[in-house]
Amino acid sequence: MNGTDRSVLGTAGRGDTALAGSVCLGTELSRRRCRGQGDARRDCPAGLIPALALALFVAVGCRSPSGWRRQADEAAAGILRSTQERALGRTEPITVDSPADSLRRRLLLDQSLPHASPASQSLRDCPDTAFWSQSRHLPPPPDGASVVSSVSGPLRLTLLEALQVAARNSREFQDAKDRLFRTALALDLEADDFRNTFAGVLSGRLQSDPLGSDRRYGSSTHGDLSGSRRFRNGTELSAAIAVDLARVLSQEGASALGLLGDASISVPLLRGSGAAIVGEPLRQAERDMLYAVYDFEQYKREFAVRIASDYLGVLLTLRRVENAEENYRRKITSTRRMRRLADSGRQQEYQFDQSVQDELRAREGWVQAQSTYQTNLDRFKVTLGLPPDASVELSEADLDALRQEAEGLSQGAEVADYSSGVPPADAPVTLQPPTREHAGPWELDEARAIALGLEHRPDLRVAQGRVEDAQRAVMVAADALRAELTLLGTARIGESRSIASAAQADAAWRTAEASYAALLTLDLPIERTRERNQYRNSLIALEQSVRSYQAAEDTVKLDVRQRLRALLLAREGVVIQAQAVRLAERRVRSTDLFLQAGRMAVRDVLEAQDDLLAAQNSLSSAVVSYREAEWELQRDLGLLEVGVDGLWKEVRPERSE
User: Fold this and answer.
1) What one-character-per-residue DSSP string does 212-231 give?
2) What is the radius of gyration, based on Cα positions, of the chain?
3) What is the 3-state secondary structure (H, E, C) of 369-434?
4) Model confidence pLDDT, tens digit, residues 150-197
5) Dist. CA 53–CA 225, nearest whole Å
6) What are the CA-CA distances from residue 265 to residues 31, 234, 243, 517, 601 (Å)?
7) Percent of the chain, pLDDT > 90?
8) 3-state secondary structure of 233
């Protein structure tokens, strides 16, 4: 075969039987066109073949970048849907394109926030340059893309709204979706190895050669259309058809048409044969796609819990600002009262100075609490993917609702109860451990909680799948130790033409003159050092995957047990701090009355006020900690359902006592 041929041994593995059928069809069309012309030297000319090949080359070579993009999106979306249905029993769209009018963009424009570049708004706001064209690479924005209303005033967010904003604007969440989408594209590429694959090459050449004292000028056009297919059992087919048109541009002006077709087949019989071995890369890519869906599902839960915790954390600092403000007002009131008492001679002057010092400390705490709140709010806005200088407010209704729910946990519960009398100081002390009397809905029985975690945790499913992957890797490595027996076959029909052979007659397509070849090769397993070591390493990797699964299972149990203890601890904290707040409020009232009566030093009043502030802050922290512990337990049990839009669903199970 010359340089224009598709060598059987060189191109084995990229073949297709459908292409061979198209070759026969083209020949039949040409035969019908020339039937009756009576040329005994050939079955028929192939004059129609160049036109058909050229039309096909033009048709498949004119797809725009947007067309290729749309094809990739459709392939990835189909893979994602099928994998989600298999892994989760449901589907949800994964969109990796940024919206045309995001909330970040709307805040920048409507609130007139400074920004240095159009890229701060969105990709679609970037102007076209010599290297970038939006219309060439981006699809048109969907109708009604601007779904965010005007936010010229402060943007007020509830917890659920914050979750939705994070899902649509968070750069971290978008990166997670990008990784999932890229995994789908990687699977599509791996599957492409087992699809019908076509290629086309069209080339033209001008040539000048010395011919005695003169020169010969000529041109040649070469078109090559090939197809290939690899099957799951390892068989590889390839077929190609090449059309040549050679013409001499000087002297006699001779021209000739060349038509050449070849096909090849490669069939492994021992090593590297069978669907289990050949299809392993594709099977592993499918498993990786499944793991990516599981990982993304777990990531959504972790992301939602983190956003919700950050949201409550910001509200907690806001509540501390309010508590610090109330404490500052109490200090000012106490200072004013001390001034009057000192002027009347009922208190010493130094006690007034002491009260002023506490007032100054209260002011410092109030200002510091405001600064901490603003800093946490700015960081939270960046976490959501919003500008830190945007005017955003969080709704305190969520924290108030948690406070009301916490009242049910502490209702009627007294840790230090002396209302029914106090026993003698030297009486035996019996400690009462925490009970489940006021337990919340997620304080489950430990055994049941562990069973739920082992059943629903996605990362545990991934660890279990890795064990199966390692087992298949051992099988593949063991197969590589076998002898390699391969059957090769080739078939060739027709002839090629060049400028040197332009004076010859057009190439004929005669099946009687086709050439065929077969080859059987055997590679004995005499030297397999590399394969031997890979096989041993695969067994080691299998042992490691088993240990990793055991570690993942133990981690699930550890997480669940820790979350249950955190719930118990947080509930005890709510009960203790609720009682501490009640006691601190009573102390503030009583010490204030005693101070007005001149029967108590100002230090006792100031300490009571400080204790009230600390108890109020501690109660708010305990309430938030309990809710966060509930979310973290649901996350670690794999029961918190979070959509790609940021909305979540909590299903509270019945507790078994």
Assistant:
1) TTEEEEEEEEEEEEEEEEE-
2) 39
3) HHHHHHHHHHHHHHHHCCCCCCCEEECCHHHHHHHHHHHHHHCCCCCCCCCCCCCCCCCCCCCCCC
4) 667 889 999 999 999 999 999 999 999 999 999 999 999 999 999 999
5) 8
6) 28, 11, 22, 11, 102
7) 46
8) coil
User: What are 199's strand-pairing partners?
Assistant: 226
Sign of CA dihedral 610, 614, 620, 623: negative
Q: Which two tokens stand for residue 505?
A: 């007659």
Q: How many CB atoms lie within 10 A of CB 407?
A: 12
Query: DSSP H helical segments within 17-156, as ranges?
Result: 17-34, 48-60, 65-88, 103-110, 134-137
Quick one: 405 exposed, middle or buried, by C-beta within 10 A (0-12, 13-18, 19+)? middle
DSSP codes joined into one string, 28-57: HHHHHHHTTS--TTSS---THHHHHHHHHH
CA torsion 537-538-543-549 (nearest 10°) is 130
Distances (CA, A) of 173 to 91, 100, 125, 296: 18, 17, 22, 10
Q: How far apart are CA 386 and CA 393, in angstroms?
A: 12
